[in-house]
Design goal:
The complex is a heterodimer. Chain A is 71% helix and 4% strand. Chain A is mainly alpha-helical. Chain A has two domains: 143 residues, no CATH class; 58 residues, no CATH class. In chain A, helix 1 packs antiparallel against helix 4, helix 2 packs parallel to helix 4 and helix 5 packs antiparallel against helix 6. The longest helix of chain A is centred in the last third of the chain and has 29 residues. Chain B folds into three domains: 235 residues, P-loop containing nucleotide triphosphate hydrolases (Rossmann fold); 66 residues, no CATH class; 217 residues, Rossmann fold, CATH 3.40.50.300. Chain B contains 20 helices and 20 strands. In chain B, the strands form four sheets. A six-stranded mixed β-sheet of chain B has the order 5-6-7-3-8-9, with helices on both faces. In chain B, strands 16-17-18-13-19-20 form a six-stranded mixed β-sheet, with helices on both faces. In chain B, helix 3 packs across helix 4, helix 4 crosses helix 5 and helix 13 packs across helix 14. The chains are: A mainly alpha, B alpha/beta. The interface between A and B is large, with 45 and 58 residues. Chain B: InterPro entries: AAA+_ATPase, ABC_transporter-like_ATP-bd, ABC_transporter-like_CS, ABC_transpr_CbiO/EcfA_su, ECF_ABC_transporter_ATP-bd, P-loop_NTPase. Chain B: It is found in: Cell membrane. Chain B: This is ATP-binding cassette domain-containing protein. Chain B: GO terms for molecular function: ATP binding; ATP hydrolysis activity; ATPase-coupled transmembrane transporter activity.
Chain lengths: 244, 529
């Protein structure tokens, strides 16, 4: 999660997350493919005009999911149930109902992905955690723990890569993927636990108590433009739902 | 008078151990004192400063009896730069200390800026921590500690994970700081160069966690030489002599000794390796990882039985080069030959019977559950007869001093033993090439020397050794060829003598040459003045 300079990046992370989750929830209640399509397109437009998405970024991120949703659509459409047959060959049986269902589910997945991306691509991780403390009353103990944990992810990746090459030199062959998983995960976990312990000690040694009696370097607030974004997005989505 | 900092009849035992880590420790440290605690690994040095800093028993549980006189505001710096941070950016990290002290928000910006200047951290405050070098990370760690306004600063091997240049910088910084603020400082270190010169007091522990000596640095160094050697402490190169005197006075004993080394170096004939067969040679090779090219136009020739040292600053591509040599990282451009056959024509199985690679972290390399199986692994994979595996494995166990541990789990060995085991596992097929990535890094003198001795024996039998290292004495003493990487190209290639004699290049590449070359350079400077 790395923010850009867009309007969306300047919004309060918790408020933005709430807005997007609400839209996703609404998406789940809609069974009309046309409305789902509109809401998805709305998400893409928000991304381009407010989220600073470039066309290249859009392609890189959305094309894989587009392929996936086409697959979902085909599965639902060709093997679904229904009365009005459109086309039938061998074991494929496409009906009007199944096409509608397939389209809805496929577009719904795309919508979910798009609104999720809208959040992650415009949010700074630290600010998000801070806003969880300030707006969602998460305890500092959990919040700072989470932050420390995020630093582990790239570390794990580089260690896993090192271990793979080390095993390659030794001539270790993965016969069975479960065994390979165990092989790699135990040293990774043992290192992870040791590191986590050390970080915890270092944090406590620096006077971290986990209580709320502390000041904050970065604070987040909910201001008018957060409410404006929340309301206008929800109004547009609800309007789209009403029209049909 | 009340004790400023210290302990009285202190015993500490961790719950998972049967033996005590500290025994009957009585100690008193005065305000403003700079104290260095020395001892073999496992002597409870870290336990002692954790107790004095109040981390034990508050944050690490242990059975404690006796009295501890601790201060309320203390700061502790740990050896692993990575595992003392919990935020993502420089400013947030320093702010974390201030937040914990409940400093009002409007005072923070100025304090953060001041602290960054104070520790010489001249980067943008929004710099992601992961992009900093090890030395910079330790500067940041220091800034975070100073933000706590501590009465006492504790250092638990703060430079163990840094290269020599980074170590020198951190020690210089701490020395400056100590002169400015007269802060009380307590160190645990096993490298003495750079800190012993300005310590007020040295405390030497034995392997059972009891004090065997306590006094001025000079006295301890002179009277407890044997104990320090056994403890594996890297002896200081100049101290207690003064470097200025050594340079100016040609009849100074150390000066004579160094001159002699230098003389014998220049007389040393180069080994006639030219006639030996080529193990590796490259033609205009570019190396890098991902999409990035790090070093371009590499032309090297490595012959059988050579000892090749690969040096350069962190991030200059040393490790990548080493990996590229046996196909663990694909090369970007050019031709690479292993035994006169293109590298990519070798199958993995054949290639790794001829070449072994010892990684920086030995733990990532272990595959099986016992030391014996670990060495025998390759033979079993190739369905060798049982007695052949047995003889070969036993021979290697003996060679690397691991016989006693044949049934132990590799993870339970000490760091030095783990390292030796990882080398032993790479020699089952009598590999003709052995590549090592900083094999002596972070080790004490004793274990490092044991490893080097094993490698030297192998080299004499004809194994080619290629090694990434920061230890210039090692480079000078053993290598036939040095390859120096700097700013994306090969700066130097040849015998170590030619590199270290070149003062300009040494400075440009931020190397710290062995003492006798330093003497040579400084003498040269004197003549011109």
């Amino acid at each position: 999660m790395k923010p850009n300079d867009s309007f969306l990046a300047s919004l309060n992370p918790s408020c933005k997350l709430f807005t997007h989750i609400f839209v996703m929830f609404l998406l789940m209640t809609i069974s009309n493919p046309k409305v789902t399509l509109f809401i998805w397109i709305l998400g893409v437009f928000v991304g381009i005009f407010l989220g600073g998405w470039r066309i290249a970024y859009l392609f890189k991120r959305l094309v894989p999911y587009l392929g996936f949703s086409i697959l979902v659509f085909w599965m639902m459409a060709a093997f679904g149930e229904g009365e009005t047959t459109i086309w039938k060959w061998a074991w494929f049986h496409v009906t009007e109902e199944s096409v509608t269902n397939g389209l809805t589910i496929a577009l719904r997945t795309l919508g979910f992905v798009t609104y999720g991306l809208l959040f992650t691509s415009t949010t700074d991780l630290t600010l998000f955690i801070m806003s969880l403390i300030h707006q969602c009353k998460l305890s500092p103990k959990c919040a700072y723990g989470l932050l420390a944990g995020f630093r582990f992810i790239p570390l794990f990746q580089s260690e896993l890569n090192q271990m793979r090459t080390a095993h390659k030199v030794r001539g270790y062959k993965q016969k069975n993927s479960w065994k390979a998983f165990m092989r790699y995960s135990i040293p990774l976990f043992s290192q992870g636990i040791r590191k986590a312990e050390r970080i915890a000690i270092a944090m406590e040694a620096r006077g971290f108590t986990g209580t709320k009696e502390r000041t904050y370097y970065q604070t987040t607030q909910v201001v008018t433009k957060d409410w404006a974004y929340l309301c206008s997005l929800l109004i547009v989505v609800l309007a789209l739902m009403m029209v049909e | 008078m009340e004790t400023f900092l210290g302990c009285k009849k202190l015993f500490i035992r961790f719950y998972n151990r049967s033996e005590q880590s500290l025994q009957n420790m009585t100690l008193s440290i005065n305000k403003g004192e700079k104290v260095l605690i020395l001892g073999p690994s496992g002597s409870g040095k870290s336990t002692l400063i954790s107790a004095l800093a109040g981390i034990i028993p508050e944050h690490i549980e242990a059975e404690v009896s006796g009295e501890v006189f601790s201060r309320k505001n203390v700061g502790v710096m740990f050896q692993d730069p990575d595992s003392q941070f919990c935020m993502l950016h420089v400013d947030e990290e320093i702010a974390f200390s201030l937040e914990n002290r409940s400093i009002p928000r409007n005072e923070m910006d100025k304090m953060i800026a001041d602290l960054m200047v104070h520790v010489g951290l001249n980067v943008d405050k929004r710099t992601p921590i992961e992009t900093l070098s090890g030395g910079m990370k330790q500067r940041l760690a220091l800034a975070c500690l100073l933000a706590l306004e501590p009465e006492v600063l504790f250092f638990d091997e703060p430079t163990a994970q840094l290269d020599p240049k980074g170590r020198q910088e951190i020690f210089d910084l701490l020395h400056q700081l100590s002169k400015k603020t007269n802060q009380t400082m307590v160190f645990v270190e096993h490298v003495l160069d750079g800190c012993i010169e300005w310590m007020d007091r040295v405390i030497l522990l034995n392997d059972r966690g009891a004090v065997i000596a306590d006094g001025k640095p000079i006295e301890i160094l002179q009277n407890f030489q044997k104990e320090m050697e056994e403890a594996g402490i890297w002896r200081p190169r100049v101290f207690p002599e003064k470097w200025v005197e050594v340079v100016e006075n040609t009849s100074h004993p150390l000066s004579i000794k160094l001159s002699n080394i230098l003389e014998s170096k220049s007389l040393e004939k180069l080994k006639e390796v030219d006639k030996q067969e080529l193990v590796i040679h490259t033609e205009k090779v570019d190396i890098g990882y991902g999409k990035k090219t790090i070093v371009s136009d590499i032309n090297v020739k490595i012959r059988k039985g050579e000892w090749v040292s690969i040096i350069g600053q962190n991030g200059s591509g040393k490790s990548t080069f080493l990996k590229s040599m046996i196909g663990l990282e694909p090369i970007k451009k050019g031709q690479l030959y292993f035994q006169n056959k293109e590298l990519n024509k070798w199958s993995d199985r054949e290639l790794y019977e001829k070449a072994g690679f010892v990684f920086q972290n030995p733990e990532l390399q272990f595959i099986t559950d016992t030391v014996y199986d670990e060495i025998a692994f390759g033979g079993r994979q190739r369905n060798w007869p049982k007695d052949l595996i047995e003889t070969k494995t036993l021979q290697l166990l003996k060679e690397f001093g691991l016989e006693r541990y044949r049934d132990a789990h590799p993870f339970t060995l000490s760091l030095g033993q783990k390292r030796r085991l990882s080398v032993a596992t790479m020699l089952l097929f009598d590999q003709i090439l052995l590549l090592l990535d900083e094999p002596t890094f972070g080790q004490d003198e004793k274990t490092a020397n044991e490893l080097i001795r094993c490698l030297k024996e192998r080299q004499e039998l004809g194994t080619t050794i290629m090694m990434v290292t920061h230890d210039m004495d090692l480079v000078d003493h053993y290598s036939d060829q040095v390859i120096l990487f700097n700013e994306g190209k090969v700066m130097y290639q040849g015998p170590p003598n030619g590199l270290f004699s070149n003062e300009k290049m040494v400075q440009e590449c931020r190397l710290i040459p062995p003492l006798h070359y330093q003497l040579m350079h400084e003498r040269r400077g004197l003549v011109f003045v």
